Description:
Oligomer: single chain
Largest sheet: 6 strands, parallel
Radius of gyration: 20 Å
Structural class: alpha/beta
Shape: globular
Mean pLDDT: 96
Distance between the termini: 30 Å
Helix content: 25-40%
Strand content: 5-15%
Amino acid sequence: MGPNFMDYIIADKVLIPDEHQVDYGEKIIYMPHCYQPNDRLRKAAKSEKNRSSYGLPDAKFVYCSFNEISKVNPTVFSIWMEILKLHQESVFWILDGKGFARENLRKEAAARNVDPARLIFADKAPEDEHFARLSLADLFLDTWPYNAHTTASEALWFGLPVLTKIGETFAGRVAASILTAAGLPQLIAKTDEEFIRLAVELANHPSKITALKKQLLDTRYQVPLFDIALFTRHLENAYEQIVDRQINGLAPEHIIVPTT
């Protein structure tokens, strides 16, 4: 944050590796799994809606992004369109703010030699309805340099795999942190080329997507990402270490929270 009155920042080793410590004025509280607290209380609405209810084709692969439209930049959009060109039997389901955004994105798709009809726009919806529709997509494609944060953990909780590209900043490493704590580090790309390759490979092998979705739903009550009681114990441990240092007249220092 910059000001000298901020003593600590809560993070983890994926978000802030040791070599990045120099970029932070704060001392770092290293949580053992993920900096982000997530409980197991998210509920989806009971819904009879299917793909056709949202204008999605039944027989095609559905890539999606439910990040805020402001996170979409020309580089990311070009990579998404390259993926659509490499996998012709697919569409892209994207959340937008209505109005000129839809017209602009269709125009940009056409400029990249992608049929604008392959962009299908999702309106914002009440939270429980939004959660219910997540399972209709096949693969969530992340944005950068500003990743999905809560949106990523919501998708994973409801069984939607997220593909990300890890960046150099805190905001660009969040989805990688979340995926690591969810047990899916194989969905973290390091380059644009790897991101494209993984997105196309998964679409070409539906059994891999099925396996990822099953893994997410089968393990969501076991992985540390959604264990709020464990997260709370770790955070309390960090606070105890901070208070002990304060009581003993010691300056703030990096805190490494043990896994136990």
